[in-house]
């Protein structure tokens, strides 16, 4: 019996369950002890091991990127590099921090129109 796995990792979406990867690794470990592995099986086992390590790394990276450091008063003490990553990945609303609210945008827009002569009639 061969276990063949295809794992795709795209933008943090993993199409294979970690449990299946571990089952496949354990299957090949038992088979190697009992009968040995041919080249194809050894390559599949190594691929499973590599994918397992990659999934662990992705999971750890995702956990670290979601960390937000605050003090007792609720002040954000997250390091700037983490804030930049979180802003890029739209985590914790960081991508919204630099955006102006609608009233402020309207105020800036209207201020830019002050140079226009209000006596000019627009054709409808």
UniProtKB/TrEMBL annotation:
The keyword Cytoplasm is annotated on this UniProt entry: yes
Classification via Gene3D superfamilies: Helix hairpin bin
InterPro entries xrefs: DUF896
Keywords on record: Cytoplasm
Record keyword Flavoprotein present: no
Pfam families: DUF896
GO cellular component: cytoplasm
Compartment(s) where it occurs, according to its Swiss-Prot or TrEMBL record: Cytoplasm
Main location: cytoplasm
Similarity remark: Belongs to the UPF0291 family.
PANTHER family, per database record: UPF0291 PROTEIN CBO2609/CLC_2481, UPF0291 PROTEIN YNZC
Protein name: UPF0291 protein GIY09_07580
Species of the source: Fundicoccus ignavus
């Amino acid at each position: 019996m061969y276990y063949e796995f295809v794992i795709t990792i795209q933008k943090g979406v993993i199409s294979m369950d970690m449990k299946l990867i571990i089952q496949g690794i354990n299957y090949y470990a038992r088979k190697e002890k009992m009968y040995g592995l041919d080249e194809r099986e050894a390559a599949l086992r190594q691929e499973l091991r590599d994918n397992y390590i990659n999934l662990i790394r992705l999971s750890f990276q995702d956990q670290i990127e979601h960390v937000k450091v605050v003090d007792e008063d609720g002040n954000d003490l997250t390091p700037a590099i983490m804030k930049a990553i979180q802003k890029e990945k739209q985590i914790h609303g960081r991508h919204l921090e630099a955006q102006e609210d609608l009233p402020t945008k309207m105020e800036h827009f209207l201020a830019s129109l002050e140079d226009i002569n209000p006596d000019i009639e627009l054709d409808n």
